[in-house]
What does this fold into?
Amino acid sequence: MSERWWESAVFYQVYPRSFQDSNGDGIGDLEGVRQRLDHLQWLGVDAIWLTPIMPSPDDDCGYDVSDYRDVHPELGTLDDLDRLLHDAEARGIRVLLDVVPNHTSDRHPWFRDPAREDWYVWTDRPNNWVSVFGGPAWDFDQQRGRYYLHQYLPSQPDLDWWNPAVRREFLEILRFWFDRGVAGFRIDTANRIIKDRELRDNPPVTPDMHPVAARLGQRPLYTTDRPEVHDIYREWRRLCQTYTPERALVGETWFFDLQRLAAYYGDDDELQLCFNFLLTHSAFQADVMRGVVESTELALPAFAWPCWALSNHDVSRFVTRWCGGDERRARVAMTMLLTLRGAPFLYQGDEIALTDQPVPPERKRDPLDLRMPGRGRGRDPERTPMPWAAGPGAGFTEPGVEPWLPIGSDWRSVADQRADPGSFLNFTRGLLAQRRANPDLRSGAYQTLESPPGVWRYQRGAGTVVTLDFERWEARIESSSAGAGTDS
It folds into this structure.
């Protein structure tokens, strides 16, 4: 792969707790991921992103870190990670971790250390900021007699990134993992880590705001996208460039304004990839999808590489959200993902057209759903275990063991689909093989072509044309450089 390896890579998001249980406790782990590397190699992915594996009380499923230099005991050990990194490298697969720089757990030693009190955001007079998980974003600390900021759970205090000591510490944290062989990081809530130094009130929502962004009831002017955040990512990128091959930074950049999204690429000196959530949260219609892609191509600077995903651990699975379980629609969506210009991210289960699985109230684990039950659907249905085979345990865990979330039953297993040449799994694998064999699909420019209503046609590079028919739910790739076309 080239020095800019992230531009030709297909990424695969692994939710370790739900990928493979190797020790029969009902929880997926790093050894389980290692055991399933052959599936990922067979599928044809180039890199995997592991959602948080660091020690945590698990108030927010690992996004409340209590130690940035170790592995959660339920998921394994540093030795387990080293074995995973070694075996992944042997298969040509890079490994990215999740880093959570905005906040820690309140059980992190830093939070109770008087010498590090100024590593967090405190005030005597709370402003109007609200938490993503509901209620005010300030909580009173009895011991200190002051209020601390938490943009998420009260047990997730926000770090103060105006403090140079915090910045130095995270550079060393990144270096610790890079030195072990980690290929990069997905940065949690990347646009939120710097807050307004004066702690000014956020203004009310405006009519032009995207409905998802307006849910908080205020415009996060002073809690999101502060200009100083770019200084941090320029520092991080300089560290990435000291390694060969260069390490990669992927931002969870929650924007629906593409110009603001584009700014996180900097002058090719900040993040290499920034998730585009406008596509994920748009209607699955030809003109809408085309409009998002065309607007993205116009907004990004020439050097920037787009980043696309259909599903993730926070969003209803695309086969449910967009396709209503209709596999024809799912094939059009997967063709789109794997033929657009940019870095595609598959979420575990996307390759088998996995749908959201029901989770009964007594089995819920998502703190967002538990704290705000009237807010809407929780995130557990897209986090259920991977169904590897038919039968008790679904190949995820041992028969008779209760998994940490229910496995559900609305699926065709990996084993079943692998044996069926016409399955969605083999369709996805075929698309990945076409992408790997066709330079147009890996790195060619994007150009919209004239097409009838309900159809989206575009050209990649010099000779590959993709046709997505949103009326008959058919897809076709015609390529003069890669041989015969593919229909679905």
User: Anything to note?
Assistant: The longest strand covers residues 94-99. The CA atoms of residues 147 and 220 lie 20 Å apart. The radius of gyration is 22 Å. The chain has one domain: 5-103+163-445.
